[in-house]
Amino acid sequence: MSRRHSVNRPPTPDVRDDDEDDRPKEPTLLEIVNIKLIESGEKERLMELVRERLVECGWKDEMRALCRAFIKKNGRENVTVDDLVRAITPKGRASIPDSVKAELLQKIRTFLVSVAH
Amino acid sequence: MSMLKEDDLSSDSELLSKLFVDILDSIIVDVASESHRIARLGLDCNLDNEEEELRLSAEARARASDPSNSGEANGKYVVDIFGQTHPPIANEIFECMNCGRAIMAGRFAPHLEKCMGKGRKARLKSTRSTTSARNRYSRGSPLSTPSPCSNSRGRLLNGSSGIAGDEYRNSTLEEP
Which GO terms describe its cellular component (chain B) (predicted)? Predict the structure, then answer.
């Protein structure tokens, strides 16, 4: 019974004892900043803030309606999370209100400044 | 971290947009996951029956506004949702605590008006019989009535002077 898993995740990478590629694993700047963002709790705060803003402006309701339409079209049992994500991401990214976008960018910029010094 | 200061501009804005997109994508995945859960658990029940429900609610509305049904005017009485009818005027009969008569509940308020002397006609009627008693006991009240025979002075001077005159005349014990 090969049934589609409703949540598809890539398999866990195996633990490598020695570095066969001879490539020193240096964390990129993005990774460093990301880790700092998460560890300080700022990422969670930002996400909560953005979630709240997006609920206020009705964005979340629009996305939920899109999901419902997609599910109705393709059948409740056949839909996976990845399908839904793929279906709503382009519209979702495009319909973020400018004020919310600006607020989030401002807060990330502030964080980057505080990390750099 | 000096490397941040070197190529500040380009990598900074690149960093900024990457972090921004990362946060947005996480939120989108959250919404998709929530919708997925609700759909698979069947919590959003009106997915398939939306048209069905629309039709049912339209039918119910038509039934409710149907005049031939026991709605607003079925003969004399209104039928409520439990199927009970209530007469327009409450018809339970009980005893008035003031005069002791048997009164209908729906007519109790007008009866009390007459019975307890709030109404105009009732007031005149009662003061004609008990003049001095009314004057003595209603001295500060705005409803204190002008009594016709014994105290013609008190008619305009409802305040202290009229009453004071009364005191001197009626009760010699109360001299200040």
Answer: DUBm complex; SAGA-type complex
Question: For the domain that residue B98 is a member of, what is the CATH number?
Answer: 3.30.160
Q: C-alpha dihedral over B121, B126, B132, B133, to 10 degrees?
A: -120
ipTM of the complex: 0.84
Would the pTM count as exceeding 0.80? no
- What residue type is assigned to position A28 of the chain? T
Write out the residue range of the structural domain in which residue B114 sits: 85-118
Please state whether beta strands B85-86 and B78-79 pair in parallel, antiparallel, or not at all (unpaired): antiparallel
Nearest-CB residue to B18 (from A30, A81, A87): A30
Please state the separation of Cα A85 from the chain's center in Å: 10
Per-residue pLDDT at A13: 83
Model pLDDT for residues A13-61, shown as the tens digit of each residue? 887 666 556 666 788 888 999 999 999 999 999 999 999 999 999 999 9
A112 CA to centre of own chain = 19
A–B CB contacts, 8 A cutoff, strictly below: 99
